[in-house]
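To whoever is on call:

I kicked off a structure prediction for a single chain this morning and the downstream step that reads the tokens threw a length-mismatch warning. I double-checked the sequence; it's 389 residues and nothing unusual in it as far as I can see. Pasting both halves so you can look.
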Amino acid sequence: MKFKLTFLLLLTANCSMAQDVQFARKMVDTLTAPYFWGRGYTNDGVHKAADFLAGQFKAYGVKPMDGKNYLQEFSYPVNTFPGKMKVMINGLEIRPGKDYIVSPDSKGVTGVGKLEQKDSTHFVDSQNRIVLSLEDKLTWSVEGKALDYTLIQMDKKAVKQLPASINADIENVEVPDFKTANVCGIVKGTSNPDSVLAITAHYDHLGGMGSSTYFPGANDNASGITQLLSLAKYYAAHPQPFTMAFICFSGEEAGLLGSKYFTENPLIPLKSFRFLINLDLDGTGIEGITVVNATIYPHEFAAMKQINQENNYLVKVNPRGKAANSDHYYFTEKGVPAFFIYTLGGIKAYHDVFDISATLPLTEYADLFKLIVKFNSSLMQKPTRIAKK
């Protein structure tokens, strides 16, 4: 009878975790769908994503952080590419996203011209102020303003002969006051509500380049947001002694702007934050994880490593020092203890059109979830050591 009961408990636990992985896959599929258009600056992508995340919080029972609204609104300038996006090289039309990208600080252009070779990788159409650059990999980003020329970055393999002519029709629109929002929720603590453990991740990505090409952003950062939603769902159903806070940042791709805004306009006092875990690029894990700020908070990192070793979750938990490479950074600068966790190994797609849900393995999704839950439990059992600045 005892064996049967143990087997039943194990089976139930495994089914529950299988459901969680199914939830994760469905959520990554959803967030990378054309409806959200890369969670960026055209087709209302980032606004649709914010509303969706607020709806998820409400469905789980996570309350608005300020008691009224899940959205913390802010704005910043951005250069967008909402419409025409056509480039021909040597009379051959090349594909946006796959064969070329337009540098995000480029102005729009319409013109036909000859290309003059300047070096082994750069060609210039002086008449139309176009620069063509040959690249090994196409990596897009976000910029606030347009310069007075157009830079087109083309995959070296897109055209077999040297580029000699160009025909471009590219539309850009500068938005000086692009409005967006962080999505912020909490689950109140049962015995120490003024002590806060936070889970954060950015939900914005690069959006679209033209009217037919968008950047799905599966690993960056549908993966981190999905893990945050899983944790929010769990903690809403299992309230903890400490208050659990969940912040989905916008504006990360434009320079950590959402997290910067939150730390300058906190909805709950920053001094109440006992620890923060930021999740970004968490869709793989075959080679383990890296923990940024591990060397700043060695006691907490040692606790995380011990939990991982005792439970055999991840093959490796690598330490890394301070880095301004995701949304934990401005919290650290304000004295909030924080880790930034990203997974290692697997797919190489990054800031390109190939970062899609279909090839995102979610290898260590379940183990990372369990590691974070146990780590948070350990933080609630003893005071958190705060590094001296």
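Update from on-call: the warning came from a stale cache, not from the record. Cleared it. Sanity check on the structure: The first strand starts at residue 63 and ends at 64.
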